[in-house]
Specification:
9 strands; globular; 7-stranded mixed beta sheet; 12 helices
Length: 326
């Protein structure tokens, strides 16, 4: 009589490649440190509940990512989750690019990365590619988000940028609450498709945000999954990465998340958005943050344009004064 051995599943680590602490609505300079610390504690508790092994802290460049990371680490306590320092950089042309590293002091000290509207998209990707301590991800490649590459460039440009970065966010879960609402209220979904101009295309784009098709983003790069969570209730979606043995320290965890492993399974917790209250709470909270962040980016862009005009004007005045015969 032969006894068959039960198949043993290989160990996995759970990784969220795209997370925002969102400890303040605008910037750390205007943020409340006490309330930020309390939210950071709730975030760590949620990380533990979801059994996340690694989370990339990709706060927006215009919301003091270095300070947000430091505030998160101050509240870490005994949590086993490895929080990777990162930033969702904002290029000169308004495109989002996630940049991360294992060294927070190094990353948050690079002006070209942490300064909004400072560096062009090609220059930023080239800068990161040349530095062995930095890595970049093209986030939400086909999303409705204003910082999506395809909102301003062609799909050919998108694929070129993905090859340059080496990482692309194939699964962005930022619209999960909206899709859950559509599942609960199919009549609303039907009305969007049939009665609202471009409603059907909008729903298709939202679906491609959650799962970008291969023919749009190409192959041969690392596919990532990110919750893109800005609020505690949206934390949970992640990628499961198979490994030969579970990592025993943060250095080994970092090596796994940047390695070219083929099996990266996107996972959405079954309990997410099961209650109507959690769906509407997420929709309202994220609606508010979209307005706040959009307005803040517009203000920053306006200030930068004004500074550039003033600099050009002053240079012309100086040049005229130095000109001979004047």
């Amino acid at each position: 009589m032969t006894i068959e051995k039960a198949a043993v599943s290989p160990p996995v680590i759970r990784v969220d490649y795209h997370f925002h602490p969102n400890l303040w609505r605008f910037s750390g300079k205007r943020g409340n440190s006490k309330s930020a610390g309390k939210k950071a504690q709730r975030i760590w508790k949620k990380f533990d509940e979801e059994k996340l092994d690694v989370v990339i802290c990709a706060e927006h460049a215009f919301k003091d990512p270095g300070k947000a990371y430091a505030c998160m680490m101050d509240a870490k306590g005994e949590s086993p989750t490895y929080l990777v320092p990162g930033v969702e950089a904002l290029t000169k042309d308004g495109i989002d690019v996630i940049v991360f590293s294992s060294d927070p002091d190094y990353l948050y000290g690079i002006r070209e990365i942490i300064t909004p509207f400072e560096t062009s998209l090609p220059d930023l990707l080239s800068f990161v590619k040349k530095d062995p301590n930095l890595y970049s991800i093209i986030p939400h490649p086909l999303s409705l988000a204003r910082g999506t590459i395809t909102r301003k460039y062609s799909h050919a440009m998108l694929r070129k940028c993905i090859r340059e970065a080496g990482f692309v966010e194939k699964h962005n879960m930022s619209f999960l609450a909206f899709e859950s609402a559509m599942d609960r209220f199919p009549r609303v979904r039907s009305a969007l498709k049939t009665r609202i101009k471009k409603g059907k295309k909008t729903l298709e784009t939202i679906a491609m945000t959650r799962k970008a098709p291969h023919n749009r983003i190409g192959k041969g790069v690392i596919f990532t999954t990110g919750s893109d969570a800005h609020h505690v209730g949206d934390i949970g979606p992640h990628a499961e990465i198979q490994c030969n043995a579970l990592p025993i320290n943060d250095e080994q965890k970092f090596a796994l998340i940047v390695s070219h492993r083929t099996h990266r399974k996107p996972v959405i917790p079954k309990k997410m958005y099961k209650k109507k209250s959690s769906i509407f709470r997420s929709l309202i909270a994220n609606g508010i943050i979209v307005l706040c962040e959009g307005g803040h980016k517009n203000v920053l862009r306006g200030k930068k344009i004004i500074r550039e005009i003033l600099v050009k004007t002053s240079k012309k005045i100086i040049h005229k004064k130095k000109a001979p015969g004047k």
